[in-house]
Amino acid sequence: MPFEHVNALYVEDDKLSRRVLQMMAADAGIETLTLFEDSANLLERATALDPKPDVIFLDIHIKPHNGFEMLKMLRGSGHFDGIPIVAMTASVMNEEVAQLREAGFNACLAKPLDMETFPEVLQRILEGEAVWRIIS
Amino acid sequence: MTSQVIQPPVNPPTSGGASTLRTSSPLIRFFTWLVRPNPAIADAETQRRSQLLAGMMIATAMIGNVLIFFAIAATNFTELHFIDTQIAIFGAVIVYVPIFLNRAGRVRLAAQLFIGLMTLVVLAVPYTTGDVPEIAYFTALPLLLTAIFFSVRATIILTVFLAVSTAVLGLTLISTKWFFVVSFFILLAGVLIALFIWQVQYEEGLRTDQLRTANDKLRNSEETLEQRVIERTEQLERANKVKSAFLASMSHELRTPLNAIINFTKFVAKGSMGPINDEQKGALNEVIDSAKHLLSLINDVLDMSKIESGSLKLFVEKVDLNGIMKSLLATGKTLIGEKNIELHAEVDPDLPSILGDKQRIYQVLLNILSNACKFTEEGRVTVSAHRVGENVEFAVKDTGPGIAAEDHELVFKAFQQTNTGLRQAGGTGLGMPISRSLAEAHGGRLWLESELGKGATFYVSLPIQSPILQPTVAIN
Predict the structure, then answer these.
(1) B251 → closest Cβ in A92, A97, A101
(2) Contacts A87 to B, Cβ<8 Å
(3) How large is the ipTM?
(4) Structural Rg of chain B based on CA atoms
């Protein structure tokens, strides 16, 4: 299975959304998926992860630090260089997309996630492609 | 949709004020020309004064000239009436001096000279004739002129001067019995004239004050109005921001639960949570289809809200059309499914990249293609894309039932579906109006050619480099 050695981190406050990604990750055969319920002490907790995640999914509308702030923190630490950070958003205003791109997210996935294409999309993200799926 | 500035109709320029002269008679035009002020005078009031003075002096000159003519003609130089001669000389000769002074622009000096000369004549007449009553007829003139062209004070001064001069004349040269009457008359005339003019000037002053007050009020209300406009605009901008924030949160709230609904159901239907029999699978697939339909409804309604409230924003970049066409044709195969329809492609091998929002362009083309596939039961759907001048023109032609000419515009109206016996299953009625707005937001067009019973062709034309689009990201 292609994602055998892939570890992922997902920061998401909505329980059902966490569960959905969990199911998709399990289906795709990802080795580990760590779930954070909120973004408090994000840097600490994320850096403490072992093994280091190969891809990080961030919910944009979350507290106390929103997706943009989380991105800044993670990139600022230098610990996650080279690791794609993906924005997960249920709201699809184009101004937000422009902001996400400018902020430096590697990719963006819109909720509801598309189960059928998730493995293919994940592959492309891991290969470094900038995937921008705003409307599924 | 991107805001469009609608130009108001340009009013034809109104003709200048010169037309007023053309409507008056030639005689009036001649006199107007005759009393024209010196062009160097800039002040309108001085211009008017100059004209008035010119009119009086020229009239005096004309009368004087006529008098001289009659004097000479009537008497043959033998019985020239002295008094007539004096008046004639004043009117015919001397008055030309102030006339030319006035034309030269020295209005004040001309007026002073005119009044001075007239006063001289008025005093000289009784002096030479030895008869005071004659003076009474003439003193009003210089007094009136002084009141018109100079101040009330000057009028009073001249009144006193004339009254005193007449008194002196009467006492020293002529019979005394009339000079008191005449002096009194002069005093009376002068004072009355001065009062009259003073009253006129006072009222003029009042009126000027009224005008100034009205002007100030106007300026104040103008400023108030402008202030209100600024406030309203700010209100509108705030309201717009609130609307946008509302749309964003609505979007978020409506889509999050669907994430759970669609994906959990898919998981169970797949059998990932335990074995599922065919009947259960079928039922769950219905749930999934309904949820997907609900999702597309939400997307359409949100899009329509954005378009209607003018908050639609495009993510503009260089879009590779070849990639889009590939995805489109692949999706088309899925849309056709089991139907006996042949999907035919006539796509230029080397389509240029165009400036636009990739997602939205795909949305428009997919909308047209899915309509074609949905409405056609069997036959062929042709997808084409060619460069046409500065645009790229896409077309989707189907062999479906077609659309009657009278229904063509209905297709693009929100919430309408045509009545040609076909109800699109699960249609929102919003797809076409949204697609058209999206095409137009790109500076392009979306139109249809169809006849009832002969299939339909939907065209989309998008400019390669539309001037109305600003790239959202730097083009690399």
Answers:
(1) A92
(2) none
(3) 0.84
(4) 48
DSSP code at position A56: E
Q: Which of residues 301-330 of B touch A (CB under 8 A)?
A: 302, 312-315
Bridge partners (DSSP) of residue B274 are B272
Q: Which residues of B touch A17 (CB under 8 A)?
A: 256, 259-260
Is the Cβ pair B313, A23 closer than 8 Å?
A: no
- For residue range A62-88, what is the model confidence (pLDDT) as tens digits? 878 888 888 988 898 888 888 999 998
Helix (H), strand (E) at residue B458: strand B456-463
- For B327, the token pair is 């995805």
Question: E strands, B232-376, where?
Answer: 317-319, 340-347, 354-356
Please check the confidence at residue B460 and state whether its pLDDT lies above 90.
yes
* Cβ-contact B375, B401 below 8 angstroms: yes
Give me the phi and psi of B183, to 5 degrees please.
Answer: -60, -45
What residues are paired with B395 via a beta bridge?
A: B384, B459
Measured between beta carbons, the chain B residues lying within 8 angstroms of A110 are: 255
pLDDT bucket at B422, cuts 50 / 70 / 90: very low
Any CB–CB contact under 8 A between B266 and chain A? yes
Q: Is B315 in Cβ contact with A115 (below 8 Å)?
A: no
